[in-house]
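Chapter review: from sequence to fold.
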Amino acid sequence: MPVCRLTEKELREQIHQVMIPNLNQVNPMTSRVVDLSKYSRMNDLYLFEKQINMGYEIKKYLGSVFYEMTALSPHDYCTYEQMRALAHDKLGVVVMPSHLPS
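The token string follows.
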């Protein structure tokens, strides 16, 4: 769950830095940059009898968050579509579209 939340936060910050003109930009020289794509590309983890696929967990979490946020504020659907495209480009995670009327 912490990796999923961090992934959503990073995607949201990157999209908002592009969409909001006067938002402070993150300086990679002063702040720590985390490569989140390594989590989406990981092999399955096995904990006792449980198998965890991090790429699938991130995909499922982002899909539910994007769906809920689009349902709550349909006028922001474009933002979540851009976050979905960024997740695919940056992390290689294909998040299914919400299929809500916009």
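Two observations follow directly from the output. Helices lie at 2-19, 37-40, 54-72, 77-91. Residues 2-22+34-91 form one domain.
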